[in-house]
Amino acid sequence: MALMPVSDALAAVLAGVEPLPEQMVSLDEAHHRVLARDVAARRTQPPQAMSAMDGYAVRAADAAAIDSRLTVIGEVAAGRPFTGRVGAGEAVRIFTGGVVPEGADAVVIQEDTIADGKSVTIKEAAIVGRHIRPAGVDFREGDILLRKGTRLTERDLALAAAMNHPQLAVCRRPKVAILATGDELVMPGATPGHGQIVYSNGFALHALARQEGAETIDLGIAADTLAATTAGIRRARESGADILITTGGASVGDHDLVQQALTDEGIAMAFWKIAMRPGKPMMHGRLGAMGVIGLPGNPVSSYVCAFLFMVPLIRALSGRSVIHHHRERALLGRDLGANDQREDYLRARLELRDDGTLVALPVSHQDSSLLANLAAAQVLLVRAPFAPKAAAGSPCEVLRLPV
Question: pTM to 2 decimals?
Answer without folding.
Answer: 0.89
